[in-house]
Design a protein that fits this description.
This protein is 82% helix and 0% strand. The protein is mainly alpha-helical and 192 residues long.
Length: 192
């Protein structure tokens, strides 16, 4: 991995480092509801980095720089890292690791069903990114791309639905994801 990629990965992990420094009260704090702050911060940064990962496709296509193509997989794994921490903060810290409560909560709460679907999509892509699965990964690149786009759609929907009110940030993420999906469909159809 090149130094530029490593630098961008490090930069993308700064919010996680900041969150942990606040959690251990090295400076500042997590506010009145620290568990909620941990859950939401990890989730929002996971969605942001996932969207940034998808934006690498148009950047690569129109700039012709290989750097963007090389950055997609590591940055996607960083997005998975944040989303995994989002889920684990909810399941272990908020729900005390009680699997029954987590399952019932997911089944009974529509925005959690959507979020769980997005998480499973991203997790499935993360699992096949191991070096031993590279031949399969390269052979099924379009399927994997579709799964990542599905994860972004479900993640933006989960965030929008979770806000319970119309928030500008959630709408912006939904709009960006819709534009990226439409772009991908046009590219796949050969219209761009």
């Amino acid at each position: 991995m090149r130094y530029g990629t490593r630098l961008i990965i490090f930069i993308s992990l700064i919010p996680f480092i900041d969150l942990n420094l606040k959690a251990f009260e090295i400076y500042g704090g997590l506010g009145a509801n620290p568990v909620e702050t941990m859950i939401h911060t990890n989730g929002i940064w996971g969605l942001r980095i996932l969207i940034a990962t998808l934006m690498l496709g148009p950047f690569n296509r129109y700039s012709g720089l290989k750097f963007f193509k090389q950055l997609a997989k590591p940055l996607g794994l960083v997005a998975l890292f944040y989303i995994l921490n989002h889920f684990l903060s909810y399941a272990i810290i908020d729900q005390g690791g009680d699997l029954k409560i987590v399952i019932v909560d997911i089944i009974e709460t529509p925005y959690l069903i959507v979020g769980w679907g997005g998480f499973l999509c991203l997790l499935s892509v993360g699992v096949v990114s191991f070096k031993s699965l590279q031949p399969w990964y390269k052979k099924n690149r379009s399927t994997i791309s579709g799964i990542v786009y599905s994860s972004a759609v479900l993640g933006a929907w989960h965030y929008y639905w979770n806000t319970k009110t119309i928030e500008t940030e959630a709408l912006i993420y939904c709009l960006i994801v819709c534009v990226l999906v439409l772009w991908r469909v046009k590219v796949t159809q050969g219209k761009l």
